[in-house]
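I had to read the description of the data format several times before I understood it. For illustration, here is how one protein appears when written out as sequence plus structure tokens:
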Amino acid sequence: MPEESRRALKGLDPRAPLVIDTRELGRRAGSMRTLSRTIPAPARLGIEVLGVPEGTEIELNVRLESVVEGVLVTATASTTASGECVRCLDPLERELDAEFQELYVYPESGAADDEEALRLERDLIDLEPLLRDAVVLALPLAPVCRDDCCGLCPECGVRLAADPDHRH
């Protein structure tokens, strides 16, 4: 059974690092709470050539605001992404900061009728889908080790930076 199906059957696990309990926040509009966590990166967080390795520390700063429809989540995530240069295939690492904001609606609110709205589940919020989207959008599509990277020779594969006079 796929992981999403199992999670749907069981509900959210309040002990999961990216699940936040909003009960302390309360439901009075205007209430606010901030929290900071260092969490391990979930699996498959990135794109083919650049991503955050599973288990890498992510510094997560979250602001929860109670509004009439639900809880507004504003967060920043800071971590290190690693991968390879698309021109020369050398390994590279990049500091990565991703920001995201989303409204999680109460199941009984009128906004819950919107099929695309994220919902609180037993006063719990799962930040993993938002974090995943924010990190992927913050990554460059074609990461390079240096802006002036010459890449590889298309005929023989020699690194052109190591042999600037290379010719065929």
In short: The first helix runs from residue 3 to 10.
